[in-house]
Specification:
The structure holds 2 protein chains of 2 kinds. Chain A is mainly beta. Chain A has no helices and 9 strands. In chain B, 0% of the residues lie in helices and 51% in strands. Classes of the chains: A mainly beta, B mainly beta. Chains A and B meet through strand 3, strand 7 and strand 8 of A and strand 5, strand 9 and strand 10 of B.
Chain lengths: 111, 122
């Protein structure tokens, strides 16, 4: 079970948009529209912000959007706010005995 | 509102067995189509899924940990538990319990416990 690949860090200025990538393989991201994204403030549990590639749970603002192309999924955060300056992580369904796999996480810095 | 809460020792000696329990409140662990799992996060590192269980006992597991992991469910107490044997310093991590869908309704981990830090040290 290999972790999904995310950039260690990305940055953007308040009000701008940033995109975080999540690259898997044809066995996970590429085969299923079951990619999810999480935000994780320091010292707290992850919070689901996107599921099934592009769906937002209730209460998540529409600044958050997701997409997928081939083996790579992306999370785009528009209108960056100071509160977005935290870690973001992806996960994908794998369809095997492992069921799911996580990415290594990306630290978003709001400049 | 569904809540999950981990409990267990915060310090485990090398070679011993780590044991954690997750208590579910605000909902039933026997809810159809949901699995209950354990995820860990070593200090400064990413998330790693460990193993998950359905209330009937069906499980999904991480092959890299399978030989050392045991998961169980107690529907009468609305709890599920994790045992990780032969621990080393590499098993030091924050351990989270979480809920997720099964193979037909996987939508990620939608509810999480607050996490509990387990340190492996003599």
């Amino acid at each position: 079970q290999s972790a999904l690949t995310q950039p260690p860090s990305v940055s953007g200025s308040p009000g701008q948009s940033v995109t975080i990538s999540c690259t898997g393989t044809s066995s996970d991201v590429g085969s299923y529209n079951r990619v999810s994204w999480y935000q994780q403030p320091p010292g707290t549990a992850p919070k689901l912000v996107i599921y099934e590639v592009s769906n937002r749970p209730s209460g998540v603002p529409d600044r958050f959007s997701g997409s997928k192309s081939g083996n790579t999924a992306s999370l785009t955060i528009s209108g960056l706010q100071a509160e977005d300056d935290i870690d973001h992580c992806c996960s994908s369904y794998t369809g095997s005995t492992t069921l799911g796999v996580f990415g290594g996480g990306t630290k978003l810095t709001v400049l | 509102q569904l809540q999950l809460q981990e409990s267990g020792p915060g310090l485990v000696k090398p070679s011993e067995t780590l044991s954690l329990t997750c208590t579910v409140s605000g909902g039933s662990i026997t809810s159809s189509d949901y699995y209950w799992g354990w995820v860990r996060q070593p200090p400064g590192k990413g998330l790693e899924w460990i193993e998950s269980i359905y209330y009937s006992g069906s499980t999904y597991y991480n092959p890299s940990l399978k030989s050392r992991v045991s998961i169980s469910v107690d529907t009468s107490k609305n709890q599920f538990s994790l045992k990780l044997s032969s621990v080393t310093a590499a098993d030091t991590a924050v351990y989270y319990c979480a809920r997720h869908g099964g193979p037909y309704n996987w939508s990620g981990f939608d509810h999480w416990g607050q996490g509990t830090l387990v340190t492996v040290s003599s």
